[in-house]
Amino acid sequence: MINWLIATALAAAPPVAAPLPADAQPAMFMVRDADTTIYLFGTFHALDSRTQWFNKDLRDAFDQSNELVLETLIPEGPVVPGRRGLPIRAPSVTPSASFLATTRMAIDAGQAQGMQVSNGADMILRHAAEQEGKPVEGLETLEFQLNMFNSMPAASRSQPGDTPAAPPIQSLSKTMVQMESAWKQGDQKVFVDMLGQLQQASPDTYRVMFTERNARWADWIAARMRTPGTVFVAVGAGHLAGKDSLLVRLAEKGIGSTRVE
Question: What HEC string does 77-101 produce?
């Protein structure tokens, strides 16, 4: 959910001229030691249904994994007592009006191009794991994510009357399609450019949403590496790109990564 906010920061991004491949190959990375393998897959939270992406190396990595870890578990029903991972529950935090407006705009823009959250990589992976009986957990709770956004400095949020104004939905729709196309081809550059623009436009937002979260997630992965097994970790593609990426934070801990081709 939180990555919908990033879409509005992309309206001024340069066009990405890229054909939609019939068989997509989004970026995936791997970290491993003698007895632990962790796959790091960059997701796109809403997709169309025109392209197959859950296949080949990605499917093999998922099948080999003993558990799935997502950014968060969006509630789909009542709390399931005893479920492994962080609790699935409705958040006690009331999201701000600007959060809701921005999210609604991004969702509308994506839907105008046939993109649905139900087709998003996170949701497809979660349902596949649940059907196969794989444990699913989240790095963060939804409540934590909402608290994170609502506690950002006021200057980092969009408010009515801000300059520049919110992008027209047509421009946002075009940008969403361009990003989706780049994601399907495993093109990390578009996300590097997006992160640079976001950091320039709102350093506090960039720090809270990317720098600090990537550092926490790197700590989690470093700790998980001490337990044998194979784990499939799926987070927004932007977290695996740029100078403050999760991969960079892992490298700082002496944990190298390789791209799975």
Answer: CCCCCCCCCCCCCCCCCCCCHHHHH
In terms of DSSP bridges, do strands 136-138 and 67-70 run parallel, antiparallel, or are they unpaired? Answer: parallel
Contact predicate 252/46, CB 8 Å: no
**Number of independent structural domains in the chain:** 1
- Residue 108 belongs to domain spanning: 4-17+24-253
SS3 state of residue 57: helix
Check residue 107 and give its pLDDT: 52
Nearest to 209 by CA among 148, 151, 155: 148
What is the spatial distance between Cα 151 and Cα 182, in angstroms, rounded to a whole number? 32
Query: Which has the higher per-residue pLDDT, 85 or 77?
Result: 77
SS3 assignment, position 157: coil
* CA atoms within 13 A of residue 7's CA, in its CB half-sphere: 31
**35-39, 133-137, 142-146, 189-193: least confidently modelled range:** 142-146
CA distances to 103, 109, 131, 167, 172 from 11, rounded to whole Å, are 14, 11, 37, 6, 5
Q: Can you tell me the distance from the alpha carbon of 112 to that of 95, in angstroms, rounded to the nearest whole number?
A: 24
Token pair of 87, please?
């609790």
Q: Which residue has the tokens 């006690």?
A: 92
| Domain assignment present for 261 | no
